[in-house]
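Standup notes
- HV: blocked on the assembly model, inputs below
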Amino acid sequence: MNVTGHTRRPASIRDVATAAGVSYQTVSRVINGHPSVKPTTRDRVLAAIDELGFRRNATALALASGRTRAVTVLTANTTHYGYASILRGVEEAARAASYAVGIGVLESADETAVAAEVQRAADAGGGLIVIAYDPAGVAALGAVPAELPVVGVVETPASPPGGDRPWVWADDREAAYQATRHLLALGHETVHYVAIPSSTRRTSARTAGWRQALREAGAPEPRPVQSSWGPAGGHAAGLRLAKDPAVTAILCGNDDLALGVLRALHESGRSVPGEVSVAGFDDAPHSAYLTPSLTTVRLDFTGLGRAAFALLHGVLEEAVQVAPHPVSEPELVVRESSGPPPGGVQRRPPA
Amino acid sequence: MNVTGHTRRPASIRDVATAAGVSYQTVSRVINGHPSVKPTTRDRVLAAIDELGFRRNATALALASGRTRAVTVLTANTTHYGYASILRGVEEAARAASYAVGIGVLESADETAVAAEVQRAADAGGGLIVIAYDPAGVAALGAVPAELPVVGVVETPASPPGGDRPWVWADDREAAYQATRHLLALGHETVHYVAIPSSTRRTSARTAGWRQALREAGAPEPRPVQSSWGPAGGHAAGLRLAKDPAVTAILCGNDDLALGVLRALHESGRSVPGEVSVAGFDDAPHSAYLTPSLTTVRLDFTGLGRAAFALLHGVLEEAVQVAPHPVSEPELVVRESSGPPPGGVQRRPPA
DNA sequence: CTGAAAGCGCTTACAG
DNA sequence: CTGAAAGCGCTTACAG
């Protein structure tokens, strides 16, 4: 029951055709920018479109033409800073290209659950962007049927999990390398690492960059502390590391982890950066306002999302295929949480 | 050009019909759970569906039936904790109901820009959920054509901006009231308020709850400090408030704002909670791990998102219309950032 | 319980 | 430059 009495059915191309005194195929030509339409005819059609408030039915377009101007982002997380920012970037670029953007959340890395989500995303039509920063995402990227257009946002360019699919990445390895070198240059004998969950069983790019910096400096290589994504995990890891008086520098897999580590050090009575230096990863919005403010590496997640969409767009519209490429250089942001070790420079002279 | 030689066209109901030796209408009946199908026929169809890996084409379903199992969330923001959590709740509930979820970002509150985004969302088919916590969202909710199914997530139940549309809300007023009372009970003479941008020109629910608590206690009512959504705004506001030695308690419109205030107080050499107490709003994931940890009011944003979807689902499927209702009681979480004022209880005895 | 027809709103060849 | 036909993959009455 409709209160207003009757629901106006939206105008179709036939309605427009009638109003303009042409056939509906001509209307189709006009809305598709087909060149062979007489200017006066075009103007009449355009006027009718305007008058009737006609909007082309996206569903009918999709069914008839076979292509859906839509992209679905498949992700294990929507609230963490990095993930949310990638989604944001995709949405921006998609909006600019008049694409609809859908979102599917991967609740677990379980094979059948992942397959179901991929199917759901495929049912939406259009292309897929899979954020493969974690086991669920990696599984999803691997489970996408070969005939579906997909772009992966992956952790490392070394081993694209999706086979020959296009992908984008931020240079996590370089970022971790830079942050570790920064801490070593301050005079720390070595740098401990609190790791986010790895996307695969292999060593993550962040871990690899950290290790490389240690090796090049001839510094001891402590075991990375495996943790979670949030502050709680960082807190637990920080409590453990705080017990060891030899620990003077800690690199964290992301800023949330670092926030938890900062809290743990405080609770353990170890000052930052006086006794221990801490560095994060991502440069989340709050990191500059923590006490102490957090030294971190800024990553361009939004740019990453935009690049992923651009790549997918190219595939979908069969334009020139863009080669996979990193979006932006990571940028070290030095703040209050990092400084020289307590006893001054403890590090062995460089080899 | 396809590397695998040929692209398998997905199976249609006609393919299934042929394989099962029935007409395609019968297949339609089976996939729609229509009762009048002979069990043996049903089994044959089901077997064919399984064998061919048939999935019903969502686009064709939408075009033929007129209903699209989809919801688009319209929001001004996707990265802030509250917004992201609402989106998360919608996605959870939508996934459970096999609905696709789309997202549209309102880049500005400008009338034509908002209208364009609403149109885009409408083009997707299905229902709309508009997060109307800010001017852009409120404008969008108001711009949704009457014939479109929509649910608003609004700030206050007092004046639903969408007219007679269904809506959900969290009880922000009650939450602010509780937090303010907590601070007053500790003995503060009054509580200052750093406000998030209001969704309308009228006083926000949070502001109203804060003011009500002050009035009831006969406490002075300082002017609220208008701020932004992020830590930077809180920092600026905090710097200003820190200059006034009479300020001993600050309530913030959200936890990010509180984080900035905390930083500003630190920079100004005023200890928390020794000299100034601070309380936030939302209980974001990091708030428990700040130093000092943040007293705040927990709001069930995810539940709000789920409730919004449930309401929309009811409208779309013409089930019983659920009355608008608050989702969950706000919960005060007392942590380290709030305590008695410096000189002990300064507050006048209650009237 | 099951089949044949018409139609959802478009596009894509095919005529002229 | 423009119109008439067929079809995208389904659903919805209408027959039987």
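- HV (later): unblocked. The longest strand of chain B covers residues 70-75. Chain B is about 40% helix and 15% strand.
- Next: hand off to the docking folks.
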